[in-house]
Amino acid sequence: MNKIKNYINGSISGISKDYIPVQDPSTGEQISEVILSNNSDLNKAVENSKSAFMQWQNVTPLKRSRIISKYKEIIEKNIDVLARLVSSEHGKTIEDAKGSVIRGLEVVEFATGIPHLLKGEFSQNVGSNIDSYSIRQPLGVTAGITPFNFPAMVPMWMYPISIACGNSFILKPSEKDPSCAVKLAELFSEAGLPDGVLNVVNGDKFAVNNLLEHNDISAVSFVGSTPVAKYIYETSAKFGKRVQALGGAKNHLIVMPDANLDQAVDGIMGAAYGSAGERCMAVSVAVAVGDIADDLVDRIKEKAEVLKIGPYIDEKSEMGPVISREHKNKIENYIKKGVDEGANLVLDGRGFKIQGYENGNFVGPTLFDKVNENMTIYKEEIFGPVLSVVRVKQYQDALSLVNNHTYGNGTSIYTSNGEISRHFTSNCQIGMVGINVPIPVPMAFHSFGGWKQSLFGDHAMHGVEGVRFYTKLKTVTARWPDSIKSGAEFKMPTN
Ligand code: NAD
Question: What is residue 308's three-state secondary structure?
Fold first, then answer.
């Protein structure tokens, strides 16, 4: 059995003897096993990251950038390898996996320009012959804990930025699909990154707790479910760390009566069922405004019925399985709950089977109509291919739904009315907004982050926000000896 270990100090290592299975979600079969790092593994990683940081912080930003540029080229050459690793353990289609690697690669590309963002500010003569300037310095050893649904992209939101800013980074990927993280770290070494600047430790919550409590880690970036995000935020703060913790979502897509319905339906299809709904920016609620609801539901049903569901190795597959048997059961229980609570089940994805893949974790596309805000399927994140349609009379009702929901990750509105769309962008309580765009994931040079229960902390990921997160500000006030007046001053200096 293939053993997935840690990547520390530029080589594969593993002290712990405990391993758990990693499965192919399409077949339900075990394909490898991953180490559950113990204290010795984790201490080794932190010690190594600490000494790597001492050197790396002094490498000039431009030299760091050149290594990152090389890394970009190497990833480009390895996109197929990386996508295959993602698909084999996650289950998403190869094309979807490739897209996610490319979105991560864009952050690497952005990170090559970070010297520009590390520039400080300078003010001449803040006092007589006194100048003041600010510099941004790295934090030290930083850590990232990532979810199963984007094994390449989400780690790449974090470590390229942290490393470009002069930090070292310890990545703890999801134990459900850990191979890609190890490969990404190996490729960075190939690009010339000094050993220990990027270490990967595998494991479960034991590893996470060890990192959160470790005195030598300065900052924690987390992406995952909301209860864990909240826990990470609180625990990291308790141990004096800087923290950004991104949580779950329930993204609404509003369809106004004046929307281009063809576009809206296409947008909903990809956003609700792409990657089997296992995206934090997936659309799980479509809000039909006015009298378009019947038409909208009919069209979604028609398209969802012919969606091609299958394993990633079948190039024709448009949607793969969900991550595990346990998660499939959880989604199917939500569907049952939706029926029990009175929603109208238009398309039922339970019990979905594919010949030859009977033990795969497939859930068919599921569509509920006439869902209301009191139902469990509306309130909770399902994280599967389940779309709820809520019918409202007017735009204000749709806006209230969006704003009253506990999650605030992404939202989108389809309309041809500029005034409505402008009102929506100004007034919705959501971090990422799309106008006639179904999944408004910001580019690498902007920043990714939700509001409310979708993000705990002050900084979103990557872009300028990422640089702010991974650096601390120092402000210097300087006067040179020739300009010093004699005599002590006991009052607060003013100009
Ligand atoms: P998860 O919260 O179960 O796990 C995320 C990470 O936390 C994993 O590395 C896991 O090992 C660790 N972990 C799990 N339980 C823990 C615990 N009790 N204590 C400490 N660490 C723990 O999330 P997941 O199931 O891997 O991913 C799906 C979730 O991630 C969804 O809720 C999704 O919305 C969310 N997500 C959010 C974003 C975003 O940008 N907001 C992006 C991707 C995924």
Answer: coil
State if residue 282 touches ligand 1 by the CB under 6 angstroms criterion: no
Q: Verify whether ligand 1 is closer than 6 Å to residue 324 (CB atom).
A: no
Most ligand 1 atoms within 8 A of CB, residue of 34, 280, 455 to mutate: 280
Atom number, ligand 1, closest to the C-alpha of residue 248: 34
Distance 92 CA to ligand 1 centre (A): 17
Say if CB 162 and CB 143 are below 8 A apart: no
Predicted confidence at residue 365, as pLDDT, reads 98
Neighbours of 417 (CB within 10 A): 15
Residue 41, token pair as written in the block = 């593994």
Q: Which of 428-442 are b and which e, b meaning 16 or more Cβ less than 10 Å from the residue's Cβ?
A: bebbbbbeebbbbeb
Per-residue three-class SS string for 226-255: HHHHHHHHHHHHHCCCEEEEECCCCEEEEE
Mean pLDDT lowest for which of 351-360, 368-377, 484-493?
484-493
* Res 484: pLDDT: 62
Round to whole Å and give the CA distance between 151 and 181: 7
> Is the beta carbon of 341 within 6 A of some atom in ligand 1?
no
What is the SS3 assignment for 133?
Answer: strand
Q: Is 224 in the pocket of ligand 1 (CB under 6 A)?
A: yes
Atom of ligand 1 nearest to the CA of 204: 11
Taking the CA of residue 146 as reference, the ligand 1 atom at the shortest distance is: 9
Neighbours of 252 (CB within 10 A): 26
Give me the mean pLDDT over the 289-300 stretch: 98
Residue 225 has pLDDT above 90, yes or no: yes
- Ligand 1, atom 14, residue with closest C-alpha: 205
Instruction: Identify the three-state secondary structure at position 396.
Output: helix
Query: Among 259, 257, 248, 254, which Cα is nearest to 411's?
Result: 254
Task: Calculate the average pLDDT of the chain.
Answer: 97
- Between the CA of 246 and the centroid of ligand 1 the distance, in Å, is 9
What are the structural domains, with CATH classification, of the chain?
2-247+454-476 (3.40.605.10), 251-435 (3.40.309.10)
**394-404 tens-digit pLDDT:** 999 999 999 99
**Burial code of 91-103, b = ≥16 C-beta within 10 A, e = fewer?**
bbbbebbbbbbbb
pLDDT at position 483 over 70: no
Phi, psi of 235 (to 5 degrees): -70, -40
487: pLDDT strictly greater than 90: no
Q: Please state the rounded mean pLDDT for residues 152-157.
A: 98
| Residue in 165, 180, 280, 428 annotated catalytic | 280
Does the annotation mark 428 as catalytic? no
What is the tens place of the pLDDT at every residue in 65-112? 999 999 999 999 999 999 999 999 999 999 999 999 999 999 999 999
Q: Who contacts 326 (Cβ-Cβ below 8 Å, separation ≥6)?
A: none
Nearest CA to ligand 1 atom 20: 205
